[in-house]
Amino acid sequence: MGTDQPRTSAGESIVGAAADLPDDALVLGLDVGGTTIKGEVTDAGGTALAVGTVATPHGPAAFDAMGELGERLLSELPEADRRRVRRAAVVLPGLVDTARSVAVFSSNVGWRDVHVGDRFAERWGVPTLIEHDVAVAGWAEWRYGAGQGYENVCVVILGTGISGTLSVGGRLVRSGYGQVGEYGHVPVRRVGGLPCPCGNTGCVETVASGAAIARAYTRRTGREIGGAAQVFALMSTDPDAAAVVEDAVDALADGLVGIVHAACPELIVLGGGVAGAGAALTEPLHRALSDRLRLVPAPRVVLGEFGARAGLAGAALFARRGALT
Predict the structure, then answer these.
(1) What is the pLDDT, as a whole number, of residue 13?
(2) By CB atoms within 10 Å of each CB, which of 139, 171, 317, 322 scores lowest?
(3) Please, are residues 305 and 141 in contact by the beta-carbon 8 Å criterion?
(4) Are strands 267-271 and 300-303 parallel, antiparallel or unpaired?
(5) How far apart (Å, rounded) are the C-alpha atoms in residues 60 and 318?
(6) Judging by beta carbons within 10 Å of its beta carbon (0-12, 13-18, 19+), is residue 252 exposed, middle or buried?
(7) pLDDT for the residue numbered 2
(8) Which Gene3D superfamilies match (predicted)?
């Protein structure tokens, strides 16, 4: 390799950072959310040797918390294991420019245009990759989780918001600026719909996200409820809960039907907190899609294998593989 090859602060070439690691290597992965930052050091089999979680501070201070968590996890390892850590990956919410290693914007956490890569590589002493959290979670479910073995897969992450990934012909679809599927911001209720924080009206997210399901139940009944999981749990005995879930499923199906027509995925994989509803969500969504489709087959609808850990598991896999391939 020539001496003019660009290098990371930890001394590994950028090209080298995109190669698979040997089986004896360990990796550090961080999944950054609006509430918590989760981290693990794992081996090739996915066994965690060090685990930690910290609250996510607001604004650029979140990056200091990431650095401290990673440093603490590395310090907990025996020296022999510490030397085996060969790469790290940090997956971030919002807009992420991976080419420039910049966290462009996160409305939930409150940062803008923060340069990332060098600070972690210098602090931790290992090459550090960054990526969009949903891109990594969806890729992990497709390549190593419920979508493994399929070339055409739509992964939908249902939580506080709704987004996901699309894989077509064995390739992960990315926009020109690196984003993946903003499924939550497909307008499905333009007439009489609720305003969405994105500035539109009647987006899928205003009806089918976890927060939206809980709010809809409270509006309908006047009773406060702890979250979407409780609404799903009440479906068999509470007609109001059943109606709220039916409305959410209809909105989600309306938002996905265009994607199904355009890309003909064989499989839709549901992840995120709302997917914890299991068959109470997958079965009616499959029926709703089947009712809307005439020219293309209805894809199977299944639960993701990584669940709420998709981002963290994906960060470790991304660090080990070096690219979302």
Answers:
(1) 34
(2) 171
(3) yes
(4) parallel
(5) 24
(6) buried
(7) 36
(8) 3.30.420.40
Contact indicator for 25, 36 with CB cutoff of 8 Å? no
- The model scores a pTM over 0.70: yes
Domain housing 83:
26-132+310-321
pLDDT for position 124: 97
**pLDDT, position 175:** 78
Q: What CATH number corresponds to the domain at position 47?
A: 3.30.420.40
Question: Three-state SS across the chain?
Answer: CCCCCCECCCCCECCHHHCCCCCCCEEEEEEECCCEEEEEEECCCCCEEEEEEEECCCCCHHHHHHHHHHHHHHHCCCHHHHCCEEEEEEEECCEEECCCCEEEEECCCCEEEEECHHHHHHHHCCCEEEEEHHHHHHHHHHHHCCCCCCCCEEEEEECCCEEEEEEECCEECCCCCCCCECHHHCECCCCCCCECCCCCECECHHHHCHHHHHHHHHHHHCCCCCCHHHHHHCCCCCHHHHHHHHHHHHHHHHHHHHHHHHHCCCEEEEECHHHHHCHHHHHHHHHHHHHHCCCCCCCEEEECCCHHHHHHHHHHHHHHHCCCC
> Tell me, what's the pLDDT at 174?
87
Tokens standing for residue 3: 């001496």
- In the numeric block, which tokens belong to residue 273? 């907190």
318/18 Cα distance (integer angstroms): 9
Query: What is the residue type of 42?
Result: T
- The verdict on residue 74 lying in a domain is yes
Same domain? For 291 and 316 the reply is: no
Same domain membership, residue 109 and residue 59: yes
